[in-house]
Design a protein that fits this description.
mainly alpha, Chitosanase, subunit A, domain 1, 10 helices, 5 strands, about 40% helix, about 5% strand, Glyco_hydro_46, EC 3.2.1.132, Glyco_hydro_46_N
Length: about 290
């Protein structure tokens, strides 16, 4: 794995907790060929006449495509395709967001780490991280470690071996980032690649009210092109969205490397791979990755 400073942190507002439906994930990368005989895969392969073009792909929430999404994000966040090895990850990457940790980069300074530990404690009272809840509430919105050091990082690693904590990470990732991205993508009539572009943007930038949040990026794109749901061309719209995303990334020094867009998402788009079908080859920070 390359230097962890490559992880890209993001802003995040703390959303109101809602009921979470756990989404089952394959615990290892599964070759797409394994899905060839499944009804889901077969549906995605039907002729265009069987469904409107925008809905032809099952979407990023198809289990095989979701696994690909997790690996793509991990290549940028962790310089590794093995996203499940990141449950235990934790460090301060000096981005003024306190500790960054877990499979999606939950931050002690942005509220999503607090939400995660609250969920974990609701499900498993007395867990090893529960005692840090008062401190996490105090440091929310700051880069401070007050009340967390010196043992929080060690206890995080301990908690990461608990399947209940792993599931809580999965569920918070889906509630705050994955599900909203897919929902908005489908509403805009964009396919699997576009839904992934939305997801990756929310992961990095959050969806707060600032000028570089996901909603602002999308609004910037809409000022340049119409999405398919409004009669626009999907490729044209996605190019506009990626342009807006690059602009947002360049507003902050921590995000100045735009390769996760330029040599990854843009590569898939130029190839017309709107369904994000393997094989996939891309680069992030100059490192090459492949999903067969």
């Amino acid at each position: 794995m390359h230097a962890p400073h490559k992880r890209a942190a993001r802003r995040s507002t703390r959303p109101v907790r809602i009921a979470v439906i756990a989404v089952g994930l394959a615990l290892t990368a599964i070759p797409v060929a394994a899905y060839a005989g499944s009804p889901t895969h077969q549906a995605a392969q039907q002729p265009a006449a069987a469904a409107p073009k925008a809905a032809a792909a099952t979407g990023l929430d198809d289990p095989a495509k979701k696994e690909i999404a997790m690996q793509l994000v991990s290549s940028a966040e962790n310089s590794s395709l093995n996203w499940k090895s990141q449950y235990k990850y934790i460090e301060d990457i000096d981005d003024d967001r306190g500790y960054t940790a877990g499979i999606i980069g939950f931050c002690s300074g942005t509220g999503d780490m607090l939400d995660l530990v609250e969920l974990y404690t609701e499900r498993k009272p007395g867990n090893v991280l529960a005692k840090y809840l008062p401190a996490l509430r105090k440091v929310n919105g700051t880069p401070s470690h007050s009340g967390l050091d010196p043992n929080f990082t060690k206890d995080w690693v301990k908690a990461a071996s608990d399947s209940a904590f792993q599931q809580a990470q999965n569920d918070e990732r889906d509630r705050v980032y994955f599900n909203p991205a897919v929902k908005q993508g489908k509403a805009d009539g964009i396919g699997t690649l576009g839904q992934f572009a939305y997801y990756d943007a929310i992961v990095m930038h959050g969806d707060g009210g600032d000028s570089t949040g996901f909603s602002s990026i999308r609004k910037r794109a809409l000022s340049k092109a119409k999405p398919p749901s409004q009669g626009g061309n999907e490729v044209t719209y996605l190019n506009a969205f990626l342009d807006a995303r690059v602009w947002a990334m360049k507003q902050e020094e921590a995000h100045e490397d735009t390769s996760r867009v330029d040599t990854a998402q843009r590569v898939f788009l130029k190839k017309g791979n709107l369904n994000l079908d393997p094989p996939l080859d891309w680069k992030v920070y100059g490192d090459s990755y492949h999903i067969g």
